[in-house]
């Protein structure tokens, strides 16, 4: 008898829905012709979600036909999009209640301190356990039952834990009447001072009205969902609860207006800039065993990385693969990795992506590797024009939406030698060198060089 295991994934944990063979599991399965017949790519889709133990996890599906697959993808993508929008209209009370029910594993409708303490850590409350226990004890004294809190009591308990008396002081200082709340005019004055003193965004009286309306729910608007909905008493003035949410929004950001995205001069040669880089990008877990994964590349790109690492070796099926040398890491194909990189490369920023190629591939598969790069990346692949070595490299602006390869060029040897330098130096007469294919060398637009311990000499010679 087979035991069927079911588990629930919250919509809030779903990252994306992918059509076709676009996860590691489906890539491996699709190597078998029988699988492709039973589950054609046109019918397959995957739900990718956050997982406590792994970087990302996916559940893969095969629909009856392409039309059914497309309906599933469309509906799930719509729900994910709506949830992302709701995060901007965050209702803290609903969030606390959701966390309450997650912690209430026995469905008793109440929580003991033993259930509450792990929950507080999950909710990122950086507090001492003894302090939390004392506050729980105080809340429990107002409870109708001993040792537990119901929903309403837990919300009150959470309010007291997160109360910030210094915000009350700020409101009293800003208020003309010395109360814990500000009017529209007083809020406008606050923003005016911030604009003059700290170059915050200039806010006129109409904008101040809009901000107050956004962050503060009045008695007449209890049923409305507002941006950063508050917990506690509703008032016509701007309360401390609303002030806390405003400080957590873009209006409370220490980053000046116009500085939220890249604002610096991006027309200098590429080597003039620091680069958001990743190392062993294909690894999502242990470095000695496990699996290489396309999820590492997807995650890094979505987090803004502009330099990724590809450790390439000869593959068993005629195409290069990515893995970690001298380990038990299961490889992924270069083609699958490049397809994932191409799909996500410019989602977070249009600036160029640099692929560092650790080339351990023999000459035969290096020529295959050239074809794979050209086929998958197409016009995205930047190839340096002839005689470009004598000219400064193009700027990030000039290289927008381009992928650059970084590695050893012709006239040198592959990275296999660098890895074995120490071992080879101990072997007298070790003269074997792995060559770099000229066609692959032409694809390298960012040559890598091995530096000595004298950086001044390196700069002069390079």
Structure description:
Helix content is 40%, strand content 13%. The chain contains 18 helices and 13 strands. It has four domains: 78 residues, PH-domain like; 71 residues, EF-hand (Recoverin, domain 1), CATH 1.10.238.10; 88 residues, EF-hand (Recoverin, domain 1, Orthogonal Bundle), CATH 1.10.238; 192 residues, Phosphatidylinositol (PI) phosphodiesterase (TIM Barrel, Alpha-Beta Barrel), CATH 3.20.20. The protein has 462 residues and is α/β, with parallel strands linked by helices. Strands 10-8-7-11-12-13 form a six-stranded mixed beta sheet. β2 and β3 form a beta hairpin. The protein is globular. The longest helix has 23 residues. One of its GO terms (cellular component) is plasma membrane. Its EC number is 3.1.4.11. Keywords: Calcium, Hydrolase, Lipid degradation, Lipid metabolism, Signal. Its cofactor is Ca(2+). InterPro entries: EF-hand-dom_pair, EF_Hand_1_Ca_BS, EF_hand_dom, PH-like_dom_sf, PH_domain, PI-PLC_fam, PLC-delta3_EF-hand, PLC-like_Pdiesterase_TIM-brl.
